[in-house]
Design brief:
Strand order of the largest sheet: 3-2-1-4-5
Largest sheet: 5 strands, antiparallel
Mean pLDDT: 90
CATH topology: OB fold (Dihydrolipoamide Acetyltransferase, E2P)
Order of helices and strands: EEEHEE
CATH class: Mainly Beta
Radius of gyration: 13 Å
Low-confidence stretches: none
Number of helices: 1
């Protein structure tokens, strides 16, 4: 069974090769890395991390997910 962890913090690294890495830091003190992302995908990942809460990481299939939100909820 895949383990889901809540993300506490993140760090972004962009390399001169054009690739990006996003380090995810979890509430339990562990970390994972989304490595070798192209800029468009990195932008999507960072947008989720910046604007949603809570955000979770599921190890194994490497899924980034948000908590449930009501349909049509407007941002304030």
């Amino acid at each position: 069974m895949a383990i889901q962890k809540e993300i506490k913090e993140y760090a972004l690294l962009h390399y001169k090769t054009g690739k990006t890495a996003v380090h995810l830091f979890f509430k339990d003190g562990s970390k994972e890395t989304y490595a070798d992302l192209d800029p468009a995908r990195a932008l999507l990942v960072v947008d989720i991390l910046r604007n949603e809460k809570p955000v979770y990481w599921t190890a194994g299939p490497d899924i980034l997910s948000t908590g449930k939100e009501p349909v049509g909820e407007e941002e304030s």
